[in-house]
Amino acid sequence: MSKTEPHVRFSLIFALASTMMLGPFSVDTYLPAFPDIADSLGVSTQQVSLSVSVYIFSLALGQLIGGALSDRYGRKVILMSGLAIFAAASLWLALTDALSVFLAGRAIQAVGAGWVLVSIPALVRDRVSGQDAAKLFSMIGLIMVIAPGIAPSIGSGLLAVGPWNVIFVFLALYAVFVVPVLLGTVFRDPVSVSVSSADVSILKRYASVLGNTKALPFIFWQIGSFSVMMLFITHASFIYQEHFGQSEQAFALLFGANIVTMFCVNLANRALLSRLASLRVLQMASALQGLGASLLVAAAAFDWPIYAFLAAMMLTIGVMGAITPNIQACFMEYFPTSGGTAAALLGAAQFGVAGTISALSALLPHTLLAVVLAMAACAAVSFSFMLRSLRREKDAAASLEEA
């Protein structure tokens, strides 16, 4: 990624971001079709919503398998295989007529997506490190953050021209579209990468990553912050449409406000990375998320009006535009020869734990305060690791002074 080749940098960022968009597209595009899918399969909307949890858990499993395999067999083989699995499963989903088959199709689709998504951080780590990696993650995130905002609109548009099955045909075609984009950019010029021995088993690869005690805190940091966002996505409809009584059109705008905020924060993150270390920006963003979560609790407890609540939610969710890319950069820095395994562990942990928390949140009282308290608890986990990193910096500085 030479500074003298801006067109190469842009094409690489576009290709990686387009590939990463497969994830949010596969989660958010079919959300508007839940009632139609339920009618078609002869089940309730709540039963169809199980497909989200199935997808999240299978995505975590797919990343765990695909990450280690990509370190052994190479990024290209695993990434292209993942796209093929995803496309085939999407077509299968378009032809399903039973809930059990639909859920199985979503599981297979998620495994393919997991192989795809876990390859992207590894590809970044293969090419750059340090602040350059943080900036590249930030630029990919800047483009990718658009996907959750436009995905429901794409789904609604497809429903206007055809049945719900068309959405899964679209997802299959999108996966096929990504293939020539990747071949013409990311894999056009092979990159020399130091990979671990092919004789090393998957379990040993993960044991090696888990043995890096300096990197592990970033996994829990990401779990805490990502779970905040997952809880919001899970309960967004209840929050805005049921509790605040907003229409479907208003809900789309209120939900989109968080996407716009993430986009702006991502832009600010890239600018800050030219002056501050990635860890410092991450600490600042986590502190702001803690503040936002506290404001959400106050808003729910004291019945603030919707626009005051929205401002607090935009702060809480919007800072993910800085938290995620910087955690990825800080974590991946420790694994120059096992980027796929490391990315898999980070991705599987965040999706697996956040998916579990999201599923368990269905047991909460059906109130706004219960939801935001759960979000605040997850934000507190993230905040605690931010404080831990500050203490480590302080202790390191004290040791240098004594020396």
Automatic annotation (TrEMBL):
Xref: Pfam families: MFS_1
Keywords from the UniProt entry: Cell inner membrane, Cell membrane, Membrane, Transmembrane, Transmembrane helix, Transport
Record field: transmembrane: 7-27, 47-65, 77-95, 101-124, 136-160, 166-187, 215-238, 250-269, 281-300, 306-327, 339-362, 368-387
Major facilitator superfamily (MFS) profile domain: residues covered: 12-394
Compartments reported by the entry: Cell inner membrane; Cell membrane
Chief location of this protein within or outside the cell: membrane
InterPro entries, alphabetized: Efflux_drug-R_Bcr/CmlA, MFS, MFS_dom, MFS_trans_sf, Sugar_transporter_CS
Membrane topology: Multi-pass membrane protein
Family: Belongs to the major facilitator superfamily. Bcr/CmlA family.
Name of the protein described by the UniProt record: Bcr/CflA family efflux transporter
Native species: Marinobacter halodurans
Phylogenetic placement of the source organism: Bacteria, Pseudomonadati, Pseudomonadota, Gammaproteobacteria, Pseudomonadales
